[in-house]
Amino acid sequence: MAQSSGDEYDSRSRQQADDIVARGPSGAFAIAGIATAIVVIIYFAFYFFIYLPRGAVQ
């Protein structure tokens, strides 16, 4: 018995999904890295432009 087109589609779609999963979550890591960099930049900006100019607490 030959495979129907539905079975062939399922096989192709499963292979595509396996290929995507094998590459890993690189996009998620990129977004997390960008978000972390933004937080660090804001932290240093606050430190250098707000905290340091005020001077020592007396």
Give a verbal description of the structure.
This protein has two helices and no strands. The chain starts with a helix and ends with a helix. The protein is rod-shaped and about 80 Å long. It is mainly alpha-helical and 58 residues long. The longest helix is centred in the last third of the chain and has 29 residues, at 26-54.
Notable traits:
58 residues, 0% strand
SSE string, helix = H, strand = E?
A: HH
Radius of gyration, Cα only, in angstroms? Answer: 25 Å
Would you report the number of β strands? 0
Q: Tell me about the biggest sheet? A: none
Straight-line distance between termini = 88 Å
Discrete helix count: 2
- Form type: rod-shaped
Portion in beta strands: under 5%
Query: What's the average pLDDT?
Result: 85
The stretches of 5 or more residues where confidence is low (pLDDT under 50) are none
Helix content: over 70%
Summing up helix and strand content along with how strands pair, one would put the structural category as mainly alpha
Chain-wise SSE layout:
Layout (H helix, E strand, L loop, with lengths): L4 H19 L2 H29 L4
Provide a quick synopsis of the model:
With 58 residues, the protein is mainly α. It is built from two helices and no strands.
